[in-house]
Write the structure tokens for this entry.
Amino acid sequence: MSYQIVAISNEKGTPDQAYSKLEMAAASPRANFAEMFKFEVPSLMVGTLDSLITLSDELGKTDSLVEAIVRKVEKTGHELSSYTGKKPELTVGGVPARRYIQQFAWDYAKYPNRRPLKELVSLISGGVSAIDEELKQLGTSFADKMASLADAKRKKGGNLMVVDLNDVLTSEIMRNIEVHDTEYLKTIFIAVPKGSEEDFTTKYEKLGSDIVGYGGPDWTVNPKELGTAVKYGNLVDRHGKRGSPVVPGSINLVKEDNESTLFTVTILKSMYEPGYYEGDEFIPGTKVDFEEAFVKACREKRYVVRQFEYNPNQASNTAMALEQLQVEVDGMRTGLTRWCKTHYGEAFVAWMHIKVIRVFVESVLRYGLPVDFTAVLYKAIKGKEEELTHALDKALGSEESHDMDDDGDEYHEFVLLKFEP
């Protein structure tokens, strides 16, 4: 539905005469292009000509900014209603937006008409900006909570690469799995994509074949010294020979689904690198961790290492947590829907008041002082929007007045604001 606000000078006549002229131009049996409504423009403070010119330039931007926020609140309300399937009930002061427009009346209590125009515009735009900021915060919080719920559902219903293993590995399955987690040994759970199982089972003992240093004293030159401490500490090239941290023969098939298979292997978790002397100073030994490097080696093969600690009670805990997340999301959605219903009306009221101020400023700049003009609202008949504008140009100006000004905007010999609620 398209609306057009039009203002013309009374030309020393009465407002009723101007009103009749506007009605005959586009909302009469002979020129039936729209339905026409009286449009109240209050007596506002004029100020100086320079201030009006400056304000006129700013009002166009403010109008667009406020409309964008109205649209944002409206869009959020519609998106929220799509979850329930109910039609959104976004109203302005308890009535549909179109009825509010057609019955518009200035809110003198909220926006005092005797305040300077610049202050009035700042008051209106500031209130709408606060609505926009609050919507951003609420929208972000809701989106984060929705993402958490989606992630929880994905993990619960996903394949073995993403699902929470405590939800799928029962006590019967775990009873047959020997799990090591000591200072030097650890059992790792690895999800392997379908089609890669044979490659994994035949080559798992070589995963990360350059991670661990297995070198030691070389007794091959003099076998008689086998076992004696002929070389130790930094005299031994521990990394002269390297290999995988996987314990040979430690593989176990745990569970499989349509997309992946879960295995366990046991790895050498860490190793102590001995200390040594540098002159009279002893350099303490260090503990080298292999797990992170092994995880990286698996990732390069597209195997997914699942960080997992068995908890027989976690399956029920996960279900309760998922249910709680759903309750929180539903609560936030209800609250945000209620917020949209309230603040849509507030933003829309602000938008209409900005349009009224635009009409006032443009009319004063066009028709001069004293303030003497009449404004009406046209609701264009569907499909006749262009004909309405053309009829107004013909009746109130000239047929050639529907031109472009230097800024590329339409120029008419009367004040005209077009918008769609």
In short: The chain has a mean pLDDT of 89. The longest strand covers residues 185-193. The longest helix spans residues 314-367. The radius of gyration is 38 Å.
